């Protein structure tokens, strides 16, 4: 049958939760046009954790905000692309439809729960609201559900904790409450933007373990945004490395660490402390991070790349598929050079 899909492809499509293609989100400011997201492509499948990693300012949070349609406008605008979530293009939905999806089918956790929690409302009220709004539960039932959810996140004495205001809880406890809220409606996709960056190392590990467990139970797909390669190694199956608003390498976590193909990924890994050291954040790769309103005309990484050649200054690199599931945006991928 012409054009029919093979059984394997069909099975893969069934598991597809999110497909972002050709996404461009720019900011129009007095300084010029900031191309925060500039032709982004990636996919997330049911039950998997996809890591989105890259230096500060490369467009990770703007990607998350674009998916949720929360980009500040003006100055921001989504210019092009598709964000297909379970077969529907989120960019074509009405405001009412997208509001219904936010917090139910797609949940989010941000770095600082204090910015997402309302300081003047008790935790129990805020959590109950999720059940009331998205599941139509009455006051008593939604409160019972809230207590059950807090129990799932291992918050001690949840019956008491529901009466707390956010400032009466520790940072770790607030992030657990956010997790309870994020998973309350059993979302198909969770977007977690630096969910543990503000927490100390021990609490960070507990919160990540908790996210992993609930995610496995509910088969939730996670888009996990982080600077931290330790978190990537611990949590993700696949990784998209971002540079200047684009994915420059896209592969499984094992290949990323063992055979990075993009010079930027290699530089990120080289900048990490040795195995066993506690610090795994990316903050010291050589050269200046790119200025998004003044990018080099061809390859944006060129001024910092130790493999740069004449072609890199003249022609923007396209995507090369090195093998199934491993893509790189570079004229001279590292593995290619070794051959
Ligand atoms: N509201 C805004 N107005 C103008 N520019 C913005 C706005 N929000 C983001 N940007 C710009 O978009 C670019 C990408 O920002 P983004 O917040 O996505 O970076 P990030 O990768 O999440 O960085 P970090 O790791 O520091 O959180 C940056 O250059 C930033 O200055
Ligand atoms: S295209 Fe050239 S400059 Fe850009 S990352 Fe590849 S080798 Fe480096
Ligand atoms: Mg960010």
**Relative helix content:** 25-40%
Instruction: Give the ligands present.
Output: adenosine-5'-triphosphate, iron/sulfur cluster, magnesium ion
CATH architecture group name of the largest domain: 3-Layer(aba) Sandwich
List low-pLDDT spans.
1-10
Helix/strand order: HEEEHEEHEHHHHHEHEHEEHHHEEH
**CATH-assigned fold name of the largest domain:** Rossmann fold
Structural class: alpha/beta
Number of strands: 12
Write up what this structure looks like:
- This protein is an alpha/beta fold and 339 residues long.
- It contains 14 helices and 12 strands.
- The strands form 2 sheets. The chain has an 8-stranded mixed sheet, with helices on both faces. A 4-stranded antiparallel sheet has the order 2-1-4-5.
- Strand 9 and strand 10 (246-252) form a beta hairpin.
- It is globular, with a radius of gyration of 21 Å.
- The site of magnesium ion has 3 residues, from helix 2.
SSE arrangement:
Elements lengths: L6 H8 L1 E14 L2 E14 L3 E5 L6 H8 L8 E10 L2 E2 L5 H7 L4 E4 L3 H4 L6 H13 L3 H14 L5 H4 L9 H13 L5 E5 L7 H18 L2 E6 L2 H7 L2 E6 L2 E7 H6 L4 H8 L39 H5 L4 E5 L2 E4 L4 H5 L1
Parallel strand pairs: 3-8, 3-9, 6-7, 7-8
Antiparallel strand pairs: 1-2, 1-4, 4-5, 9-10, 10-12, 11-12
Helix pairs in contact: 5-6, 6-8, 8-9
Question: Which short descriptors sum up this protein?
Answer:
single chain, 339 residues, alpha/beta, Rossmann fold, 2 domains, 8-stranded mixed β-sheet, globular, disordered N terminus, binds adenosine-5'-triphosphate, binds iron/sulfur cluster, binds magnesium ion
